[in-house]
Design goal:
The chain has 483 residues and is of the alpha/beta class. It has two domains: 6-224, ATPase, nucleotide binding domain (Nucleotidyltransferase, domain 5), CATH 3.30.420.40; 238-421 and 453-483, Nucleotidyltransferase, domain 5. Helices cover 38% and strands 21% of the residues. It has helices at residues 53-67, 108-115, 118-125, 134-143, 147-151, 158-167, 174-177, 192-198, 230-236, 267-272, 294-305, 312-321, 342-352, 361-387, 404-414, 425-437, 444-452, 470-481, and strands at residues 6-13, 17-25, 30-39, 42-45, 48-51, 74-78, 84-87, 154-157, 172-173, 183-184, 189-190, 208-209, 214-218, 221-224, 245-250, 254-260, 275-278, 284-290, 393-397, 418-420, 458-460. The strands form six sheets. It has a seven-stranded mixed beta sheet, with helices on both faces. Strands 3-2-1-6-14-13 form a six-stranded mixed beta sheet, with helices on both faces. The protein has a two-stranded antiparallel sheet with strand order 4-5. It is globular and about 60 Å long.
Length: 483
């Protein structure tokens, strides 16, 4: 292995913000340097919710320009999943990519099931059913006879669109392609039969390439495909030292699951509504999406609009002082998916389910965090049962690891030791795949060992004292399951 220091650039776009970071590797450890951070804002046009992709592209170029002095060995891009752009035959973007939270997918799952039964869709894709999936976004274009779809020549998911602008390569990276609910993990190709049944034009879907592929270059810098789906990159950075681990990639969404060698597309998996997303180096991520800290983000925005400006740290402090486990809710209830007044929605949900409604910001925040912890427990029980794979340790990675109260609640609710960190898991996983492709790191096992030796990791053991006895969480979990 080359022990000379190497630097790679990681472009990481999340639902709230994006950044370009330089990651240096000296043969033993990683050094992260933020080059450019920018908001990821939405734009509403004619009632439709869009991402501002041209602004993102401009910010990405700014960040890369900041990093050129470091003489980077490569660049890698990761983003959220599900959303996409369509190119015309000349390679021009047709319209601005629409946000997955836009209302165009309303009713599309039912339309899909009328053409292809739910079991058939799962058998061909192995993906969790959510109305925001790419499949239902495209189906909405089919049903509306969209002129954009009629003239489309190439489909590219969000990171693939950015890679195209960087390199000119019209390809889809594997980990992100699998999230669309249009990829067949059995045939390792696009789900052509399903597309035909739904009227989705199969000819627009390009070649699928694995993580680690060199796509081309941008201003003389090689561009690599990491796991272009941000969760795929985050899981690559899980500092696991054994196979019996589970993970939560914690941020706007919480992705809760296991790493497996093969997709699990069984009736039991269908019944549990789990998903099989592609990982790095022959792995799959058996997981389930939980609404995550999106709910707390929306609560904070609602309070700010009313003149109560709380930091996340202040909300966690208030939550720590609130009465524990007085009311719980299902974070994946559809009422919490769109933007809006989430404190009111939580209060309404609690009243409708015969529970006391939390009144103060501290009580609402505690209700959110405890409900998330219980949702994590439910998903972990489901994926262990579906996979027949036992878990002895839970790794939480991503920005949500900074919420120490939620970390402790998760340990208490699941009864598992929780290792939190790294915070910048997505950036680190993105960089690790680049470094493996460059020959600087041998394999995924060595990459994870490097992460395990980072100083920021913190362990939370399940509490058993009077403050949070197991029986109290078990009782709350029973209430949660009966909602």
């Amino acid at each position: 292995m080359n022990m000379k220091s190497k630097t790679v650039l990681a472009v990481d776009l999340g639902a709230e913000s994006g950044r370009v970071m330089a990651v240096g590797f000296n043969g033993r450890s990683l050094h992260l340097q933020e080059l450019h951070r920018f908001p990821n804002t939405t734009v509403t046009v004619n009632g439709a919710l869009h991402w501002n992709f041209l602004r993102l592209w401009d910010d990405i170029q700014t960040g890369i320009a900041e990093g050129k002095a470091l003489r980077p060995a490569s660049i890698g891009v990761d983003t959220w999943g599900l959303d996409f752009g369509l190119l015309d035959r000349q390679g021009n973007l047709i319209g601005n990519p629409v946000h997955y939270r836009d209302g165009r997918t309303q009713g599309m799952m039912e339309v899909a099931f009328a053409k292809a039964p739910r079991a058939d869709i799962f058998a061909q894709t192995g993906i969790q059913f959510m109305p925001i999936n790419t499949l239902y976004q495209l189906l909405s274009l089919v049903e509306s006879d969209s002129p954009q779809l009629r003239i489309a020549h190439t489909f590219l998911t969000a990171p693939d669109l950015l890679n195209y602008w960087l390199t000119g390569a019209k390809v889809c990276e594997f980990s992100n392609a699998t999230t669309t609910q249009l990829f067949n993990p059995t045939t390792h190709a696009w789900a052509a039969d399903l597309m035909t049944r739904l009227g989705i034009p199969g000819h627009i879907f390009p070649e699928i390439v694995p993580p680690g592929t060199r796509l081309g270059s941008y201003q003389g810098i090689p561009v690599m495909a990491p796991a272009c789906h941000d969760t795929g990159s985050a899981v690559a950075a899980v500092p696991a030292q054994s196979r019996d681990f589970a993970y939560i990639s914690s941020g706007t969404w919480s992705l809760v699951g296991l790493e497996v060698d093969e997709p699990i597309v069984t009736p039991e998996a269908l019944a549990a509504n789990v998903t099989n997303e592609g990982g790095v180096y022959g792995t799959y991520r058996l997981l389930k999406n939980v609404m995550g800290l999106w709910i707390l983000q929306q609560c904070r925005a609602s309070w700010a609009a009313a003149g109560q400006n709380y930091s996340y740290g202040e909300l966690v402090e208030l939550a720590a002082q609130a009465e524990p486990l007085t009311a719980v809710f299902n974070p994946n209830d559809p009422t919490f998916l769109p933007p809006g007044d989430h404190p009111q929605r939580i209060q309404d949900y609690c009243r409708q389910t015969g529970q006391p409604a939390p009144q103060t910001p501290g009580a609402v925040t505690r209700c959110v965090l405890e409900s998330l912890a219980l949702a994590y427990r439910e998903v972990l029980e489901q994926v262990q049962k579906v996979s027949n794979q036992q878990v002895s340790i839970l790794h939480i990675v991503g920005g949500g690891t900074q919420n120490q109260l939620l970390n402790q609640m998760t340990a208490n609710a699941t009864g598992l030791p929780v290792v939190a960190g790294p915070i910048e898991a997505t950036v680190i996983g993105n960089a690790l795949v680049q470094l493996i492709s460059l020959g600087e790191i041998a394999d995924l096992a060595q990459a994870r060992q490097i992460v395990a030796e980072m100083d920021e990791l913190k362990t939370y053991e399940p509490e058993s004292g009077a403050g949070s006895p197991t029986a109290v969480w078990d009782e709350a979990f029973g209430r949660y399951q009966n909602l």
